[in-house]
Automatic annotation (TrEMBL), chains A, B:
Classification lineage: Bacteria, Bacillati, Actinomycetota, Actinomycetes, Kitasatosporales
Protein name listed in UniProt: Helix-turn-helix domain-containing protein
Domain of life of the native organism: Bacteria
UniProt entry keywords in alphabetical sequence: DNA-binding, Transcription, Transcription regulation
Cross-referenced PROSITE patterns: HTH_HXLR (PS51118)
Keyword Membrane: no
SUPFAM superfamilies hit by this protein: Winged helix' DNA-binding domain
Length: 156, 156
DNA sequence: CTCGTGAGTAGGAAATCCAAACTCACCATA
DNA sequence: TATGGTGAGTTTGGATTTCCTACTCACGAG
């Protein structure tokens, strides 16, 4: 019998394995703000320098960030988001929205994002097919992986 | 002068401080699937039991989960999402979407979610005001916190 | 020549994580 | 009445990570 220990295969888990370590998503936040220099990242995120260096290496390896010199002699680098990195912004926006509402009751927000339409951005997750906002009770999960049901491994 | 070490005040950071530890969002995933028993969580997530116990305590304290006995004599418990917990599902769906696209090229997905409209759910983050999908280049950030600009502390 | 800045490395203490074993209460069966 | 099984954790001790401070190295400014 196979190893009885592997968890549910899941893109959420895989994504978090990449960007779920402490500070990683905050790095993406800062870099999306256009703020890609090492010392700026240290200041704005509050991460230890060595941990930040490790995160940056990992995010570059994963194709989420690129590292480019904006000056040779003195060598100076800047990290910028790739397309994949930019596409993490919706994740950041939904996290921000949750925090704004549940941790701050919607008042005294530390940051407001303006949408090009002129309004303050309030992100809503919708269904691409019908356009309606997504609510828990409208969803049904269908595991596709061999041997897995919603409840767990198929024997269950 | 104040401590020069505090990072940018940010709801994303605050939210991650709550649910950003390893396994926490996977706990929310399982619990939203209706899968709230300790041993099931251990199997489906693959977390060490002690770490899982710590995460559950924290999530209950944060008001994201509740713990309820579904049987006295033998005492048996089940964790369920609160309203705040359910509202993390959009975050999970955007993470899933990112992973499905960038880590699996959209093929061979381990889980498909069906929306009540009958279609496979492809979550899109939109602006509540105008309804358009959110793209990086349409956003402008406006920090509100004392002494902070996009670049960093106001002196910068 | 000395100071300051950017982009890291180095070293060791402190905190976390992990796997496996253990507990405790109960139920089933034989 | 022993034997085993399940659920829900706690304990233990070692392996990893994090954290913090300091240090480096290259340069440019005064």
């Amino acid at each position: 019998m196979a190893a009885t220990k592997d968890p549910r295969p899941c893109s959420i888990a895989d994504t978090l394995a990449l960007v779920g370590e402490k500070y990683s998503l905050l790095v993406v936040r800062e870099v999306c703000l256009g703020n890609g220099r090492f010392d700026q990242l240290v200041r704005n995120i509050g991460a230890p320098r060595d941990v930040l260096a490790a995160r940056l290496r990992r995010l570059v390896d994963a194709g989420i960030l690129t590292k480019r010199a904006y000056s040779e002699r003195p060598q100076r680098f800047e990290y910028r988001p790739t397309q994949a990195g930019l596409e993490l912004e919706p994740v950041l926006m939904t996290l921000k929205e949750w925090g704004d509402r549940h941790l701050r009751n919607g008042v005294d927000l530390p940051m407001v994002v303006e949408h090009i339409c002129g309004n303050e951005l309030v992100p809503v997750v919708t269904c691409a097919a019908c356009g309606d906002p997504v609510h828990h009770e409208d969803l049904t999960a269908h595991p596709q992986a061999e041997g897995w049901t919603v409840k767990g491994p198929s024997a269950a």
